[in-house]
Design brief:
The structure holds two protein chains of two kinds.
Chain A: E1 4-7, E2 10-14, E3 19-25, E4 32-38, E5 45-51, E6 56-59, E7 62-67, E8 72-77, E9 86-92, E10 102-103, E11 107-112
Parallel strand pairs in A: 2-11
Antiparallel strand pairs in A: 1-3, 3-8, 4-5, 4-9, 6-7, 7-8, 9-10, 9-11
Chain B: E1 4-7, E2 10-13, E3 19-25, E4 31-38, E5 42-51, E6 54-57, E7 64-70, E8 73-78, E9 87-94, E10 103-104, E11 108-112
Parallel strand pairs in B: 2-11
Antiparallel strand pairs in B: 1-3, 3-8, 4-5, 4-9, 5-6, 7-8, 9-10, 9-11
The chains are: A mainly beta, B mainly beta.
Chain lengths: 113, 113
Amino acid sequence: GENVEQHPSTLSVQEGDSAVIKCTYSDSASNYFPWYKQELGKGPQLIIDIRSNVGEKKDQRIAVTLNKTAKHFSLHITETQPEDSAVYFCAADGGTSYGKLTFGQGTILTVHP
Amino acid sequence: DAGITQSPRHKVTETGTPVTLRCHQTENHRYMYWYRQDPGHGLRLIHYSYGVKDTDKGEVSDGYSVSRSKTEDFLLTLESATSSQTSVYFCAISDGQGGEKLFFGSGTQLSVL
């Protein structure tokens, strides 16, 4: 089955800096790579996703890049704000259908004012 | 959280007792999932459903069973709870159209003593 590794496990940045979180996956059949943000006491919320036929996708201050050859994808957050502080999870679908996602271990992002 | 209600939000139980967690959705989505979240493991799929009375196992299904008698309800049962099942349980739904965008509930914190 699919295996997703996520790094770093914790990331501390100053407000206004950029943050980058990286994930690698094992199954070349994976086609869908979402990123979720989880705030304390809440469920994960989808913030951006990318499919295997696209190399990069942006949505305001966040972007995701995908390198299928190397089997890794990354989340980039620019101009970080304190409200970006949360746990971020990457995931991959392993080529399966219907939401059977394999998640990374999570990254605790702290943005200091 | 996208019309998803999990109950109870918190539960403390003793080893060996049966426990049922409920997920109720108002979105009329076809696909429903149960994930567990543990430190260092991200989220792991327990069971999922692709329609009424249609369910299948996920990555960590041992010790769990599910039922879905109505579109809106998906039940997760621990027949005889063990301490290793202490976790936060999340229900998720998907409309299955390209199907992977999951929307999560707020979670149930379960402690097995």
